[in-house]
Prior knowledge:
The protein is mostly helical. The chain has 15 helices and no strands.
Amino acid sequence: MKKSLHSFRSINNLPSLPEQINSVLVATGSTSSMDYNIVEIIQYDPSMALSVLKVANSPVYGYSKKISSLQQAAGLLGPGAIKNIILRTPILERYLTNHKDAPPVDFCSLWLHCGITASLSGGLGRLIGGLESDVCFTAGLIHEAGVIALSAFYPQELAEAFETSKKEKISLLDAEKKVFGFSSSEVNKELMTAWNFPDSLLESDSGITSQTSKLGAVVALAKLLASEWDYPNCLHSHNEPSKESLLKSLKITADDLSEWEPELKRYALLAISCLKKGG
Length: 279
């Protein structure tokens, strides 16, 4: 049965892994607000980042469609408000209690994939120049919001989409459209629109394959590099543009990437280390 894309607009927040929530609460509970950087604690969790950005872009604060990064949101809200947001973050497993089979997505790998993409996106933004690295980082972190939403609310149907993709040898996005009537990329945009996110974040979805924004090209290149370097990924193909087209869009060369590779890999390893420590 086809689902309604519009129904995702009523979602208040997306769930996170219990280990992630617990590690954040332990850290914030054992130190004073002056002794830790709240962004460092939650920076690799896409669901928490989305919730924080949603509150920061709400009409209450008067910055709707203006807050583009987790760092900007943290500066606006402060650690106390962010801790309250985290306390309201639901645990992912609660959504899967009625799902008999194993979920179609390995959530630990998905979180690693998002964290690595964020680190590489932020690093690329810094190295390319002319981009805000914190916005690049955030765009990379939240680019799979649609997958998280489908995994939490429709795990059985998402599993069917994975199976359809394998059987019919079509992209997962096309399989999602057959099962749901829309793709996770469209869910991503629906959520960000409903939550008053800036247009730059809406346009940064790496599923865009033509007229990709510069921010979108950075995220797409980060995903491609992560795959090339055999870092964990959620095996969720967005039919990304080719590396050549991304390099052209970003006005960089293959030689630039080769020169930056050691530094970018250090960023990725830092994300893996932090996430494994948190879990």
